[in-house]
């Protein structure tokens, strides 16, 4: 599908599976530094079929087939699923027919593995905590997982200033009580807070959308290598 | 240290800890697709103090302090240690004082985690196999590790055509007997064979230098994000 | 929803997420011994929206929302999802609003844990093998898992006599080469072969639908206990 | 040994390895819902050779040979060892010559795996906590284990009302501090408190004797299946 | 209990839980190098109540209480249980009231951890293999365990020359097929073959009675340290 | 290399990789009970090239090559590396050419595995805690590891009386909050406090230099066994 000989530049499509405009805009802003003059185009889109916030397993499962269809029909060179549940990641890969599909939880966590001994996740809610435990087990990374701590918020609330203090508190508990030494932000819209939290806790904080798109960028650049 | 406003562009320094020119040249060639017109400069250098091939734990440990000194004295914005033993990765990070340091084993393996359920490593020698088992345990990734299979070669032999058939055989055994479904090339100089092995075995094959430099590229681009 | 005071007896609904009549009939026959004169009613139904065979992750994900709707709308006291991918198990539990939902992979594997040190799974295809590895990791049971071996068949082919020899061969390889000492049949329609395989290999063989329904039976009987 | 054609109905023998009448009576009462008009007979008996309470490893080991003898000499179709140390489970299986033997810790824990991400155990004493850690490791279930919390009581004290508040406190600590989301009662006599604890903590609470006998019921019903 | 000031020298009692004189004599001979002129006395004794060979879990469990009684009644300063099932190790520790009790499987395996990346065990029989898997899981050492391979012999047959070739074959399979790089002899009577196997396979071979007694020696010498 | 027939007695060389005289003297004193009239000679030496305290990964890596040279040039029969980072253990083994090399962290931890279900480590500093987590993962012992707690001291401060209360506090937190039931002292100079801490917390406390030297003693005595 990628067609290096044509005029069309390579393109990375970032899909926010919820339909919150606030979150989509926050993701888009977070990706600025990865947009290079001659690099791949990076587009962020919401999934119209998605709920306002993905807060149950049913919310996550509900977007899988629409996501797969979107990917199958789009000519992008790589895809990023921008929800920390990584909904339908394997099905999306089947639908992408060989083109890279990156999950933000996956890449937020993998990057954290290189920044500390044990990562902790700032989670939206108690329900997310349980899903994250299942996800970390599925990834086979339990030995590096300090835990998740919830801030009890909806996805779209994570963007604003009001939540920053709670995010810092959760990160601090992960460091001090749970033994984390690197933090992953467990929602797609938390990028505006990354640096403030890092400064507050004195340990690396990973924004997962940035990591997944950076990984997609690398994969797109490397695709034609013999 | 990165200074986007100045004239000096960002720079990634890739250090080959062995002193083999053949391997250094092969690494350099493999990184072509990651060199963007306005992107960070990517330089590959050998470590003059390094041995011809790193084939024992002592070889790996011997290069740690020279590597750390090289990193401490260099003004690069990010570093890649281009030897599959990831020698001195933690010490290099201490020496880099906050600038990213990526190991090629680390990133080759992390990328493989996103391409299959269990990764296998094509290793240089039986000795490397033992060291890789220890490394994978240290990373806490044993649950995803199918195993390593040696081709019994020195680092500089991996570049030429002569070894390709043995690399394919090792990869095939990892798939068919050990249950791997993604392969990591366990030496810095194997890039010229990546695509041929992938075609021969029908499963993803990861070249670790490319992955570590792609990760360094992402880290450099994202450093200024608030 | 269960209403012990009414005349209606308790009811367990077994849903075959694929639409194969052959498989549905095989499941129904396998459950005979669990139908007690005054025990809960056990009904087996196919999911009309399901594909003929679930052989990709997309097939599995496609049935999740229809399954969840079916469960939410049905007044049964307990549910069994009769596909070895346990598609949508967590979402089904959310939809069941407290009523038990059992997965056949889950219960086939749990029963096997009590019959040997390491279980092996006779899988439909190479693709199922990969999904089973992911599932076993997600369950956190990797230490007890000897592996999966495929017979390369569709779900509806597993019912007939023609496949028995291949099932026995796969089970034998799991025992002799992979170190399993208990076998789980990795598809809903293999019940007619259970005893023949057990006799051939001399080790316990678990039929997963029977185990999940037995578990549902226990859960239904125990629900009213103070 | 089961003989469906004869007049004798199938029989499940539940053996309480301690000699406490209070505990034996509590177990017997807890099994009421599993006694079906035409189902297998369920008999609960104490082991006369057993101590009043099993509170050391020596107490547990002391009952193994008497248990094995009892099982070898009894014509029951299935057995349940009703002590949360699962004393002599493997030896009992050898003695049962193919008839099912279920341990209550084993089945309490397996059932909990289907009700949450991480189970916690309400333990009798600090000593039991250590034995439970060893047991959970032996089962290979450490990834799902949140921990055990002791109430510091003897087995026969667990039956009465006086202990309920301490059981609830221990369960709550397991949920809130240790990250459990399903609770297993770690002693055979705690059934009278199950529902009260469940209501108090708002998460599933598993009574292990009920689960082991339910599993034995399923195994007995399924034995004749071809 | 140790009383360095008195005339009685410290004493280590090695108990062979089976009653085979051949095995007891082989153990005794293997311990020669650990008998120092002024060091602790090292006595080897068989357990009269023990069976000829411990080849089932029931055999292992049967000796636990006699072992515990023997230990409680003996004034030795440390004990070694010289059967590779480590029968009753925890109960023996309770009975020893603070005096060290060492298991030979435990110490054979711990020593092997320092000699290679993955240990393999030469086992007596297929039944021992299953028990060893359970034991290694209970020790939490599964990540370092390559596997066990049986020679299908009784304990007393392991002493003679006839079995040497089979022991070497089993060790070689553990190295070449299972990926072990250190071997543990899985029975108390195999000491006479240790060096011959080591020479044949070119990797370290551990005799477990020697290791357990060496550990007991260290523990006895260190007991008086403030 | 050991030559039992010659006049020269066997010799164990204990190398303290830091250059602190206080720590070297504390190690020497702790080994008194292992010095037997006719046993191997036990010599403790500091590494002149070592830093005052090993408190970063770079400190640990810096001593590896000097350690390896010292070992290669010395005729001792066995070596002990007396720093809890076990710096260069594998390289030291290569340099020792078959002679045993024991690490104190390794043996302190292995001994603790036989004294409780979960070991905890009293660490020098927060930095050591992170290195210990990596080391325990590399050993594959995470399932038995309760955690590490720092006292925030330099190596040479651990010898004096002033620190005892902080050591006891750290050990107590490991027991009460982290679930340890055996404690390892995480620095070479803490021997003078061992018994006092053990008495204060009522659980076994392991001094790692003593354990490593005891293991070296056993290895030296057993080397000549056929």
What does this 3D model show about the protein?
- The structure is a homohexamer of 226-residue chains.
- Chain A is an alpha/beta fold.
- Chain A folds into two domains: 106 residues, Rossmann fold; 103 residues, Rossmann fold.
- The first copy, chain A, is built from nine helices and eight strands.
- In chain A, α5 crosses α9 and α7 packs across α8.
- At the C-D interface, α5 and α9 of C face α5 and α9 of D.
Q: What does the largest sheet of chain A look like?
A: 4 strands, parallel
Strand element count of chain A: 8
Query: What Rg of chain A, in angstroms, do the CA atoms define?
Result: 17 Å
Separation, N- and C-terminal Cα atoms of chain A: 17 Å
- Helix fraction bin of chain A: 40-55%
> What is the CATH class name of the largest domain in chain A?
Alpha Beta
CATH third-tier fold name of the largest domain in chain A: Rossmann fold
Helix/sheet category of chain A? alpha/beta
| Model regions low in confidence, pLDDT < 50 over at least 5 residues of chain A | 1-6
Task: Identify the biggest protein-protein contact and residues per side.
Answer: C-D, 38 and 38 residues
Principal-axis shape of chain A equals globular
Strand fraction of chain A: 15-25%
Assembly classification: homohexamer
CATH architecture of the largest domain in chain A: 3-Layer(aba) Sandwich
- Which sequence of SSEs, written as H and E, runs from N to C of chain A? EHEHHEHEHEHEHEHEH
Average pLDDT of chain A: 93
């Amino acid at each position: 599908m990628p067609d290096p000989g044509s005029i069309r530049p390579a393109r990375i499509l970032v899909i926010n599976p919820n339909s919150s405009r606030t979150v989509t805009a926050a993701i888009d802003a977070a990706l600025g530094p990865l947009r290079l003059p001659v690099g791949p185009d990076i587009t962020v889109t919401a999934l119209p079929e998605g709920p306002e916030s993905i807060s149950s397993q049913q919310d996550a499962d509900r977007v899988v087939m629409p996501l797969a269809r979107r990917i199958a029909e789009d000519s992008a060179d790589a895809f990023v699923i921008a929800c920390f549940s990584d909904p339908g990641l394997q099905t999306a890969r089947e639908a992408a027919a060989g083109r890279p599909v990156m999950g933000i939880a996956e890449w937020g966590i993998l990057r954290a593995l290189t920044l500390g001994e044990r990562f902790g996740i700032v989670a939206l809610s108690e329900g997310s905590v349980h899903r994250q435990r299942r996800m970390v087990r599925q990834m086979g990374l339990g030995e590096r997982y300090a835990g998740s701590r919830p801030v009890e918020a909806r996805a779209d609330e994570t963007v604003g200033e009001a939540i920053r203090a709670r995010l810092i508190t959760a990160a601090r508990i992960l460091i001090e009580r749970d033994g984390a030494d690197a933090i992953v932000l467990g929602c797609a819209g938390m990028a505006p807070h990354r640096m403030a939290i890092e400064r507050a806790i004195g340990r690396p904080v990973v924004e997962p959308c940035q990591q997944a798109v950076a990984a997609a960028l690398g994969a797109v650049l490397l695709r034609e290598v013999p």
